[in-house]
Design goal:
By secondary structure, this protein is mostly helical. The protein has 7 helices and no strands. It has helices at 2-28, 33-56, 58-62, 67-84, 91-123, 129-157, 160-177. The longest helix has 33 residues, at 91-123. The two termini are 25 Å apart.
């Protein structure tokens, strides 16, 4: 249960980024279309890099960090996004920081999602896999739908740095509260 809650909260955190990013980059930073495209591409680049890292070597996948540490790393990235949204840097520095941070966000999403799916498959009895997969997917899809509505409203009412700070605190609280339950490494990404 803590793992499923953690995944839902990670989806919440990622949704805050995907919904807040256009608002921050266009309304707050006034970036050009090219810069915005580069920022959006950074997440995809991180995902591709994460997929390549997971597929290259069993050595890498055997040494993946603990789930709780990944949550704390994501908190750091959200805190950095909150800091950038204060608009204290020049546009070019802000864009460069966004690209770096979002590449790491994409990498973290893949480093969690692929092994999580493998973990579910390996640790669920075969006769329950369909039900478990449907429950996990339905929970994730429902939470994303609710969160999109929620963040759409929140970004219209509050400053982005406040929203990122609150999401960071929520993710940090979950990561610390369930630190022991989430203190396992995700399994190798291999097929039996």
């Amino acid at each position: 249960r803590p793992l499923l809650l953690f995944i839902v909260i990670m989806d919440l955190a990622f949704s805050s980024i995907s919904i807040g990013l256009p608002y921050i980059t266009v309304k707050v930073l006034n970036v050009s279309n090219t810069q915005y495209g580069m920022i959006q591409a950074a997440i995809s680049f991180g995902m591709i890099l994460g997929s390549l890292l997971l597929s290259l070597s069993n050595t890498i996948t055997q040494k993946l960090p603990k789930i709780s540490n990944i949550g704390l790393t994501f908190c750091t990235l959200l805190a950095a996004l909150s800091l950038i949204s204060f608009n204290i840097f020049s546009v070019s520095i802000s864009v460069a920081l966004y690209i770096i941070i979002l590449a790491f966000v994409g990498l973290i999403l893949i480093v969690i999602n692929i092994p999580f799916a493998t973990f579910i498959r390996k640790n669920t009895p075969e006769n329950l896999q369909g039900r478990v997969n449907i429950t996990v997917n339905a929970t994730a899809n429902l939470s994303i739908s609710v969160v999109v509505l929620l963040f759409g409203f929140l970004f219209g009412k509050f400053q982005p740095n406040i929203i990122f700070a609150v999401v960071t605190v929520i993710l940090f609280t979950i990561s610390v509260r369930f630190y022991r339950a989430l203190s396992f490494s995700i399994p190798k990404n291999n097929v039996d």
